[in-house]
């Protein structure tokens, strides 16, 4: 079998949101949205939306569909749990570590004590049902260094990194390992959910809007896509590929997981997000700690922009879509007319791109409307999150801009609340719209404050530069 070729028995399934046009000759969808034209032979192999690899040609088509993000993998089998070593970086969280080990029965575990005030002792976990090895840093060097230390002692083909404040749910490992049937996959991540249900307001917000929870939809991990990175609180990696890129960057105080994902992508590896696999996380629910954590996440943007200047734009938008919404915000009759003209030009460009795909006028209108709506949501989010200091200053001096900021804050929050309803267990108490709006605004203010502090500290504005596409 050719290196990198998908194995026989491996299957792919076209995403249910992808539109099939021209009697099966064209697929419209993916993230970002694209038009994929299929040859007659490919149409026959994909007649029912599912393709099973059985030769070189079907393997090539399956790879094309996966890379175009219009289909998802359905692996057959996968490596054994005996091929995995669990690495747990920990610092002063003995109770969380004990809780985690209870869920890892029968697995080989390396605990890396990153300078705990009370050192982790091997005898403390002698009664656990795991093969436990304890390593220690005399002083704290950070989670990235702790993971790298564990990686250096790993002798298995795969290494799973689990933070001490998580607890995997049943079946998580098998669901993730199946993706490694694809020899080009270097990293797979589960969905991270809330560990406990609570009536605490912040806990209910975290249950639906945690920064660690990337949602219910499976996806490839690609910059500027629906899932642009995965958090290192719970991931499984192919050991050889991780070592090839040098492991985690220990110089990063935050964002080392984002950097790892992007370096793997740059090296030509493929990464997957698998929400069927669930890992529960003990979320922060104290307001001060929660805000500090959000700001900490925001502070990673500037260092990441220095390392990956082509991947950190807070806003990726079509120039025509941007013009349409800016003119709409002007509010005058001329502004509205110019906005409609810009929207019409956007539709015309899309129609030219889709020409020959046996599309109807409604298809063009739907794609154009979806693109303009997506641009509006991006703008609203960026105004409230990344650019809020500028937006605040502009709102103070301009009544017109103040109105635009208020509308952006409401639209961003309401749409986000609607999208995230139903992502928790049925028994969980839902969070109301007004409470959600308040916490969402605090969330964005804290993240934006951290981002701007990082920009000033690094003296680099790359994390604030939008990417405007013609």
Write the layout of secondary structure elements.
Layout: E1 11-14, E2 19-21, E3 26-29, E4 34-37, H1 40-45, E5 50-52, H2 56-67, E6 71-74, E7 84-90, H3 94-102, E8 108-114, E9 131-137, H4 143-152, E10 158-162, E11 166-168, H5 172-177, E12 185-194, H6 201-209, E13 219-220, E14 234-238, H7 239-244, H8 256-266, E15 270-281, H9 287-298, H10 301-307, E16 316-318, H11 319-330, H12 333-353, H13 361-384, H14 388-397, H15 399-420, H16 433-458, E17 467-469
Parallel strand pairs: 7-8, 7-10, 8-9, 12-15, 16-17
Antiparallel strand pairs: 1-5, 1-6, 2-3, 3-4, 10-14, 11-15, 12-14, 13-15
Helix pairs in contact: 6-16, 9-16, 11-12, 11-13, 12-13, 13-15, 14-15, 15-16
Describe the 3D structure.
There is one protein chain. With 470 residues, the chain is an alpha/beta fold. It has 3 domains: 11-74, no CATH class; 81-285, Spore Coat Polysaccharide Biosynthesis Protein SpsA, Chain A (Alpha-Beta Complex); 316-469, no CATH class. It is 43% helix and 18% strand. The chain has 16 helices and 17 strands. It has helices at residues 40-45, 56-67, 94-102, 143-152, 172-177, 201-209, 239-244, 256-266, 287-298, 301-307, 319-330, 333-353, 361-384, 388-397, 399-420, 433-458, and strands spanning 11-14, 19-21, 26-29, 34-37, 50-52, 71-74, 84-90, 108-114, 131-137, 158-162, 166-168, 185-194, 219-220, 234-238, 270-281, 316-318, 467-469. Strands 7, 8, 9, 10, 11, 12, 13, 14 and 15 form a 9-stranded mixed β-sheet that branches. It has a 3-stranded antiparallel β-sheet with strand order 5-1-6, covered by helices on one side. Strands 2-3-4 form a 3-stranded antiparallel β-sheet, with no helix packed on it. Strand 7, helix 3 and strand 8 (108-114) form a beta-alpha-beta unit. The longest helix is centred in the last third of the chain and has 26 residues, at 433-458. The radius of gyration is 24 Å and the shape is globular. The model has no long low-confidence stretch (mean pLDDT 90).
């Amino acid at each position: 079998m050719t290196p990198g070729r998908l194995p026989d028995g491996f299957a792919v399934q076209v995403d249910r949101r992808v539109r099939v046009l021209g009697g099966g000759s064209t697929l419209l969808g993916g993230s970002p949205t694209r038009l994929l034209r299929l040859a007659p032979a490919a149409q026959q192999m994909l007649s029912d939306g599912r393709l099973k690899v059985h030769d070189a040609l079907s393997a090539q088509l399956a790879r094309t569909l996966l890379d175009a993000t219009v289909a998802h993998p359905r692996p057959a089998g996968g490596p054994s749990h005996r091929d995995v070593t669990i690495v747990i970086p920990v610092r002063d969280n003995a109770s969380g570590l004990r809780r985690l080990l209870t869920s890892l029965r029968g697995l080989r575990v390396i605990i890396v004590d990153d300078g705990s005030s009370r050192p982790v002792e091997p005898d403390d976990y002698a009664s656990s049902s795991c093969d436990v090895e304890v390593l220690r840093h005399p002083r704290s060097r950070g989670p990235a260094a702790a993971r790298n230390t564990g990686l250096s002692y790993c002798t298995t083909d795969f290494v799973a990194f689990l933070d001490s404040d998580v607890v995997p749910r049943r079946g998580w490992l098998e669901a993730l390992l199946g993706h490694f049937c694809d020899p080009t996959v270097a990293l797979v991540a589960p969905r991270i959910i809330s560990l406990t249900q609570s009536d605490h307001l912040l806990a209910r917000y975290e249950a639906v809007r945690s920064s660690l929870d990337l949602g219910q939809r499976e996806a490839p991990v690609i910059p500027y896509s629906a899932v642009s990175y995965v958090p290192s609180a719970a991931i499984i990696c192919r050991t050889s590929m991780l070592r090839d890129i040098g492991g985690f960057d220990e110089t990063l105080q935050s964002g080392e997981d984002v950097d790892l994902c992007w370096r793997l992508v740059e090296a030509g590896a493929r990464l997957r997000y698998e929400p069927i696999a669930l890992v529960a996380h003990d979320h922060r629910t104290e307001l001060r700690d929660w805000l500090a954590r959000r700001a900490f996440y925001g502070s990673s943007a500037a260092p990441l922009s220095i390392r990956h200047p082509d991947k950190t734009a807070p806003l990726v938008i079509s120039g025509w879509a941007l013009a349409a919404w800016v003119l709409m915000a002007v509010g005058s009759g001329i502004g509205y007319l110019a906005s409609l003209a810009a929207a019409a030009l956007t539709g015309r460009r899309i129609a030219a791109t889709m020409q020959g795909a046996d599309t109807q006028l409604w298809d063009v209108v739907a794609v154009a409307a979806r693109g303009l709506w997506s641009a509006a949501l991006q703008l609203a989010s960026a105004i409230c999150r990344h650019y809020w200091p500028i937006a605040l200053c502009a709102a103070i001096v301009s009544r017109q801009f103040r109105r635009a900021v208020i509308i952006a804050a409401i639209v961003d929050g309401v749409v986000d609340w609607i999208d995230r309803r139903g992502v928790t267990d049925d028994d969980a108490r839902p969070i109301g719209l007004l409470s959600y709006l308040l916490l969402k605004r605090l969330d964005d203010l804290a993240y934006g404050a951290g981002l701007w502090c990082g920009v000033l500290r690094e003296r680099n504005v790359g994390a604030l530069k939008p990417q405007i596409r013609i």
